[in-house]
Specification:
The chain has 5 helices and 2 strands. The protein is mostly helical and 168 residues long. The chain has a two-stranded antiparallel sheet with strand order 1-2. Helix 2 crosses helix 4 and helix 4 runs antiparallel to helix 5.
Amino acid sequence: MPSFFPRQTIALHLEEPKAFRRFSYTLWEMALVTGVFVRLYRQIVLTHGSNNWIYLGGTFAVGMIVLLGMLTAHLANYPLHQYVWRAPAFALVEVCAEMATSALLIAVHREPNGSVRAHWDDFVGMTLHALVYRGVAIVLWGLILAGVVQLVRRTIVHEDDEGPAPAP
């Protein structure tokens, strides 16, 4: 792991972030890729999967892990006070990307809506459903993440202020 605060300034080396890290800086790109992936994953699961509750629960968990993992990867690049607007903006862009993908799937008659194919009159309901469920999950996860980050920072800063333990 590289040292970010070297003891000698002559030892300072600038390192280019890895590709995924550079990608995770941009809210638009992360949310767009997440929205498209979530909708396509949902389409594949609902059309090619089984009706077993364990299978559906597992695929739901995988989808939420990807959704919240991408949000976490994005928010990790920014200070805590920016979580307030970045999490809702991520939710909005993610749902827009998801609904654009859904519109494309409806146009080619491949979008599932339960056990039948979705039609254009289902689009508004699907949009509201995605906005409520995904949006609430993203905002709640952003709040939980902010609380954990704040708690960890207070704990670490408190321990660092005390200094090292005296030697016996």
